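To whoever is covering the structure queue this week,

Two jobs came back overnight. Logging them here so there's a record in the thread.

Job A:
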Amino acid sequence: MDADLAALATAHGVATWYEDWHRERKDVAAESVVGVLKLLGVDASTPEAIAGELEAVRERERLGRMPGTVVVRAGESRELPATATIVLEDGTEREGDEIPADLPLGWHKLHTADQEITLIVVPAELPEPPQTWGWMLQLYALHSERSWGMGDLGDLREFIGASGGPGLVLLNPLHAITPTLPVPASPYSPSSRRFANPLYLRISDTDEYRRADPPLRATVDALKPPPTADGLIDYSAVWQAKRAALELLWPLAGEVDLESDPGLTDYARFCALAERHGANWQEWPAELRRPDSPAVREFTSDRVAFHAWLQRLMNAQLEEANEAARAGGMPVGVVHDLAVGIDPAGADGWLLQDVLAAGVHAGAPPDAFNQLGQDWGLAAWRPDQLIATGYAAYRDMLRRIFRHAGGLRVDHVAGLWRLWWVPPGMGPAEGTYVHYDPDAMLGILALEAQRAGAVVIGEDLGTVLPEMTEGLEQRNMLGSAVLYFTRDWDDPDDVFYPPAEYKRNALASISTHDLPTARGFLTGEQVRVRAELGQLAGPVEQEQRNAERDREALLTALRAEGLITKESTDDEIIVAMHEFLARTPCRFVTASLYDVLGELAQPNLPGTMNEYPNWRMPLSANLEDIAKDPRMHAVAAILGARTQRKAHR
């Protein structure tokens, strides 16, 4: 690659090469680097443009200007280029030529002669998470006699009270949708990560329903959607039914405050505009495509208040779930899941467009499982704009989630260090990594988590650099330890590590939503399904042999622990898999209802869209039966006994 282009890319945090899944150097094409730089507002289209951009970089360095945001850890001091005034969160001031080591945690302002800079003091580490166990729950898949076509927050509250005394419940993302039809199924492509999905409301638990007279309640109850013919979740039908019910109850809501939370009002305004002009704001009339335009600011509709009300209902029911967790003595409580990005056509794509890279699709480079790379179609933060704006949008997102969370799982946590950007018009393999400031991204995450009294779990599976795992560990954030992957890959037989060799700062689980269930793993279900859908990379016979080899390696590990015999049934093996994890030193050990109940189908099959019913399969048993299922209580007893043993040591 041209030396000047490479230098310009490095100056803006754009990778010109990376290590692939073989740990071999992979050079990035110049066209990809030029395309990504353009997304950052940097013109690298000609040698002359590159030279001009490089000169601008050097000029900034000569001027010695500070970045728009400075992040320091608690107890750390830093020299300043000149005397400055620090205005703390509480309004008090400090003056000097350094950032002193005794500044309190928080969001402060640093004033120099010609700059106002956001100064963020973050914790060096979070408090140690407790030793406990819990459930991983795809909430939409839970269902009861009272829920409407999918699991809801009422089901969550009831599950917490009937699930054997866990210390935490980890949910799928509950991020907001755009309230139009059709409703997308994936919880990982949300309209907004700052607000919540009203499909999870339990209508009968709202104050308005309770206040309604019997005829109105009967009319609302009659809207409950019937079971679908194929047994799958129909999100659009659920939304149509709940929306109709909420509109009937809306006159009982009273006045809705649209002044105290401008961010909520802006989101509600997006929802009202989307109902009128369609789900994709990029196709709205030109005068509505910016949230600060006169046409948008002058837009009024009763629907703005309606959608703000829905979020207030969500906040109330999320808090009721937290109250159930506290009443049950759960040391962590409800743990939410943060998707790696958002749908660029949705609410956050519109509201936060000034800090997002217009046109980029976040994804992943080619690897052993996705040899063409992945394009997730998600928008990505612009690191330069985050710095310039004091990370305000990132902070706001975290604060809103932590309001109702005892913990947060960060999907693809490596994205806090670097994210694979695919420029417009290019394939997923033609992207490159863009780097973020991990001291800021993790530091702010730690600051907001500590203020909320919450734990943080990073999904650090796959190709993750050592500094990423170490960065989590240094801050007392947990990584992930999945049984299927916790193996010695340098051994010719890929042997499973014994429980004692698992890392302590981790959340341990048998599987994830993207992997085979326990029974699926034992029966080779993933091979059968992928073969049926034409998703296998090699011959089906080879994949079957690989699956059988993996099964035998797992059984060998379980036998080595004395947990099974050659005569053990699959049900007994699944219990033994949980006992195996119970013997690890991991701070959190979690079980999934998919595994405990012996489900065959995994919730999501990566690489598929409509070929597989991703995110649309309810659990085979309803909540009432799950609460009485001896398999669930057996696993809860195993994991609960582990926690008690650790507590008494």
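Job B:
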Amino acid sequence: MLASLLAAAAVALAGALTASPAQAANLLTDPGFESGSVSPWTCDGGQVVSSPVRSGTKALKGTAGAASTGRCALTVSVQPGSTYTLSAWVRGSYVYLGATGGGSTWTGSPASYAQLSTSFTTGAAQTTAEVYVHGWYGQGDFWVDDVVVDGPPGGGEGQVPGAPGSPRVSQTTETSVTLAWNAASGQVDGYTVRRAGAADVAATGTGATISGLAACTTYEFTVAARNAEGEGPAAAVTARTAGCTGSGLADKALIGYLHTSFANGSGYLRLDDVPSEWDVVNLAFGEPTTPTSGDIRFSLCPAAECPGVETKTEFIAAIDRKQAEGKKVLLSIGGQNGLVQLTTTAARDAFVNSVGAIIDEYGLDGLDVDLEGHSLYFNAGDSDFRNPTTPVIVNLISALKSLTAEYGDDFVLSMAPETFFVQVGHQFYGGTSAGDNRTGSYLPVIHALRDELDVLHVQDYNSGPVMGLDGQYHNMGGADFHIAMTDMLKAGFQVANTGRFFPGLREDQIAFGLPAAVSAGNGYTQPAQVHQALDCLTSGANCGGYTLRGGASPGLRGLMTWSINWDEYYGWEFMEHHRPYLDAL
């Protein structure tokens, strides 16, 4: 996890460029803030000042505090498939300039104005771009003047509309799906919804219901805006109709990891002593014999390390008793130390065979995939999450497809990636050869398994600041972080500068993870803050100023924690606060 945080920091601290942009094509109407207003920029505390300035009589001043970078952002209309130069003159301590999903640059502490410059290229369907400038936490004031976005203008009369924003599924039945999306930029006369082999569906507003579908079937749709000039770029969304046989997970599940193969400071806890309030118990961990063998092994903690550990016979009997109560017991593979790299088809086959053998031997309900560190990564040029080419990703997808097909509808599949491997893919994607090649590497796995996936509980802890759909950085430890990170999974998001949109998941597939106690991991969240996040996510209330892009999710699956052992060590704080809240939803 620490390696992921350091890698994310390295991506953020990209090297400074100093090329001078051409001035003739500046897309900004008030580049020097001479109007005296911050608008149309959106700033976290920014203001226009008369000194110090680089030219003219005005400049923008921002302040980076202990919990804020003083970020200012502006959305500009652009043309798809075009390259832009972004530059600004800045002064102050640690000033950053960039485009969301594109290039970024920074400078240290210039005593006088210095020019920053970077570039970005729009995706094939991209019609707007967000540019930003900010300082760094606790570094104080910074100033910005003479901002330039140099490139072909977008929008305006005589042009087709932009792409609809955040297409998502708002409702499903066994024979229909209802889609919603945000309005496209530019002049819009209507929208067209398409799927292969079916008639187009016309809509005048930002939503449509498509009928005549088969039960428990996945469909891919595109939505495009149109006007008198023609049709704009399409945005994609995937939906599955209702009517599927469920895996038997609780509607509002309390999910936890149980240290069964090792000991740590929280102490060993027998499976029989796990309270019935826990709906899913993930056995931590199954690990490979070598990182690339694919041969997963699982065993109980040695008695010398874990006094009071059960015998294998007692442990299997305890699993049977949990299942008789309606609980699910899964094998979790990986963890912080379990490096699993399926680099070959032989490793893939060994993974399928060995995991299947463990599930059969212990009579388990399914599999939790908790791959961290360097288990997943992209080879250079692997930039389409819909069609990955890197062996460790392709082989993992194939292995999980085989296991879910073998065990059928009752098999439970869950995943517990860090934010670095999922939400950070909105800003940086490792397959584009920009920055760390692991960023966003869970996205192709989640997308390929979205029909088989029962619950995705991203680890909202041990994380650096992550940019949300509001263009702001969110920090772990409070309701805001859980709201923003979970909303990304429901609404879907643009994948960095790839020009591709990652469709959101069904709300019943989504939970979020957090530490059970202060000793369990960075990002511990007070129970009241967790409940505020759940209020917002499930009903749209108590959001603290955040606007849900994916809408309310009353069917949100629940909460995950690391770990049941730590919760027991701290007197069951997590369970006793959150079980009653989930039951009341």
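Note for Job B: The CA atoms of residues 294 and 350 lie 5 Å apart.

Please reply-all if you pick these up so we don't duplicate work.
Q.
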